[in-house]
Amino acid sequence: MPIYKTISSEGGTTIYIWKIEESLEELRNGLVLTENSISRLNGMKSILHQKGFLSVRKLLKHAGYEDANLYYNEYGRPFLNDDKHISITHSFEFAAVLISEQEAGVDIEKNREKIVNIQHRFVNTEVDSLSEEDLVKQLTVIWGAKESMYKTYPYGGLSFHNHIGINPFSFADGRSSGRVIFDTWKREYEIKFEFLKEGFTLVYALVKP
Prior knowledge:
Layout: E1 3-9, E2 13-19, H1 24-28, H2 35-42, H3 47-62, E3 70-72, E4 78-80, E5 85-91, E6 94-100, E7 104-110, H4 135-150, H5 160-163, E8 164-166, E9 175-182, E10 185-196, E11 200-207
Antiparallel strand pairs: 1-2, 2-6, 3-4, 5-6, 7-11, 8-9, 9-10, 10-11
């Protein structure tokens, strides 16, 4: 299918979401890939990962970019050659690209019960605000928020548990705030989230001025 949803937010931020229903051949059609991207694509053993990779390039094209406009630093963070900020995510049959005038990150996660068993790896002070009701969704928002904030950090070494926090939130509000504190790097974030009807959670984080 074409674009599943487009979200516009403050700071000149747009999020393009793709629901992946096409074959590899359909996704590959019309794309001009760099030699490096072709090599990466051919090295992926999972068809799911290949489809995610190609759907991100479809989203880039929809936003007016080509694969050649995208590059990565040594830590794997993506950048655009026009100095706009970009964040990329894909999970199962969904992919999303965020393009913004400000630092921002995006994450899509499938709501899965197994997140309950690994919460000790990424939940810290947030544990005080958790309830048993819709625990999977609560934890998925926390993970997605931390992943989104993490994606704005240009280096390695961040810990979800020790360096990234999110304030209490309610599903009805669809928003919260958070922070990354690591050495001299200190950022405050506006967090927004929504639940897709297919059982996925979309979260994005915008750096506060």
